[in-house]
Amino acid sequence: MIAFERSSPEARAYLRERRASYAAGDGELFVYAPPVFVERPPRRKVVPVGAAPAAPFANRASRVPRWLLLHANDQPSFRELATRLELSEAMVSRTMRALADDGLVAIGSDPRDARLRLARLPEPARLLDAFERAVALRRPRRVTWEIGARDAPEAMKALHAAAHKLNVPYAVGGVAGASFVRPAVEPVDVVVWIRRDDADLWAKRLVATPSRPAPGRVTMQLTRDPFVLSLASDRGGIQIADPVQLYLDCRSAGERALEAADAIRAEIVW
Questions:
Q1: pTM beyond cutoff 0.90
Q2: 8-state DSSP, 199
């Protein structure tokens, strides 16, 4: 058992891949000692009174920086963002102000209508890096399933068939999703983002049983904001997560997935 106070997400991913048990100072616990397998996420960080909250990258607010990164050459108005992202204009305004205070976006006025405030992204790379730092320690609720697949391609076929029957939103993320955008690393397993309420439906349709990570396994991650599933794109009948999510997934997975993250970043020109 390895015990440490702090570490990078990449270091923890490396330990998990090597099946090295560890206990972190933030409460995260990973124990791999067959037949015992324990994985406990870190304790939620308590923000002290008076500290500046990470509002721009909170669950719903993060729709704003995500959309800006996906449309880096656009200059949308706050009103347009509110409509597209299903947020109030007040929330968009607060989020934009917070991003502007950090120098991540520029706010201007529409020359045709001074009442409209426009958002511009001067350096997409800086915003992407800030997004990654803000979510680095967040661990989504997830479950890994055995679905009878020997490898990632078989798992994707089973997922495609199940999705066709279920007709619920989902998005393939991680290395498997990134390979649809720009092949760089061959996926071993499949990560899928789903709504919390749909987990039982997927388990039944896939005839899934809880398992440990391994080739051909499917890991379902429960999204904190189901809206992001609407940003998925269809690639050959498979719903693939948006490039921002793919990049964040691969960065957090560490080691071999970092090459996939670099490929996504190069493809989108961030």
A1: no
A2: H
